[in-house]
Amino acid sequence: MEILRDIFYTNKRVAKKAAISLGKNWPIIFTGLFYFIATFVVSMISRGFWILGGLISIIATSALISSYLYLLNGILRRGKFDFEDFKDGFTVYLRKLWTILFMGYLAMLILSLVSPILISTIGLAAVNMIIITLSFILFNPIPEATYQKYYDPWETITYTVEFVRENWIEWFVPNIALLAIFYFMPGPSLNILSFISNVFNYFISFNSFNISIIGFVIYLLSQIWFSYFMIYRAYLFEELTTSNRRKRLFMREF
Q1: For position 209, what pLDDT does the model report?
Q2: 87 CB-near residues (< 8 Å, 6+ apart)
Q3: What is the CA radius of gyration of the chain?
Q4: Rounded to an integer, what distance in angstroms lies between the CA atom of residue 132 and that of residue 128?
Q5: Other CB atoms closer than 10 Å to residue 232's CB: what's the count?
Q6: Which of 147, 180, 236, 249 could form a disulfide with 69, with the two C-beta atoms 3.0–4.6 Å apart?
Q7: Above pLDDT 90, what percent of the chain?
Q8: CA 32 to CA 123: how far, in whole Å?
Q9: What are the tens digits of pLDDT across the range 130-187?
Q10: Please, how many CA atoms are within 13 Å of residue 115, restricted to the half-sphere of its CB?
Q11: Closest alpha carbon to 10 in 171, 140, 139, 153
Q12: Per-residue pLDDT tens for 67-119?
């Protein structure tokens, strides 16, 4: 019963803070289109560099993710972000991010050596589902750990796993509830598995929507919800990492 009360009151407080912050920082809604276009351009350019293309893509993508995470950090710490944050953010977490992504790339290479054995044993669909589930459970809060904690890349990964171990109920109950709304949206519901399997999400892909006025409106609504979702996660992660259940319930009495 205590854990239910904690989840209810903590998320009631976080939901209000996230809504107010999104209202004050509404321009973040439109950054998604820029990040989508920039990611598409990076993908096209990196293909021309053969074996170096993967490295170029990792570094460029890390810069884009860094920029977005720095905007979230500005909202969390100062209640706002500006153009300078958008511009300067490309390098703030660059080294940490590209190292984490490179570790993930190496992990996938190692997994590719083992996967044929697993596929022949349990099937391709089962292997894919295991990978998606483990990624979602173990590494889901990595974005927040990246910009809220001053750890090196490996410590960020291990801290994330430890955070999930200690706060898995408090973290995943609201996250799954918010993600469920994406499932019922016309566009994002088409690639929800891809969305939850990615460690870093920093925009809603425009590929899921029809190129029309209605399609753009639906995309805009999806981007609004995505922005709220990421701001919500920022406040929730801060709340869970700076307090414990007993302290949160105690402070609620004052």
Answers
A1: 67
A2: none
A3: 19
A4: 6
A5: 21
A6: 147
A7: 57
A8: 36
A9: 888 888 899 999 999 999 999 999 999 999 999 999 999 999 999 999 998 887 776 5
A10: 14
A11: 171
A12: 999 999 999 999 999 989 999 999 999 999 999 999 988 888 887 777 777 67
Give the DSSP H/E element, type plus range, for residue 10: helix 2-24
Q: List all residues 6 or more positions away from 207 whose beta carbon is below 8 Å from its beta carbon.
A: 191
H or E element that contains 159? helix 153-184
3-class SS shares of the chain: helix, strand, coil, % to 5: 85, 0, 15
Domain count, the chain: 1
Range of the domain at 193: 2-251
Instruction: Decide if 197 contacts 164 (C-beta within 8 A).
Output: no
Residue 85 in contact with residue 112, Cβ under 8 Å? no
Q: Considering only CA atoms, which of 144, 140, 9 is closest in space to residue 75? A: 144
Two tokens, residue 79? 């209640």
222 close to 36: Cβ distance less than 8 angstroms: no
Which is it for the CA torsion 44, 46, 50, 51, positive or negative? negative
The tally of CA atoms less than 13 A away on the side-chain side of residue 57 is 16
59: enclosing H helix or E strand = helix 53-78
Distance CA 65, CA 112 (A): 26
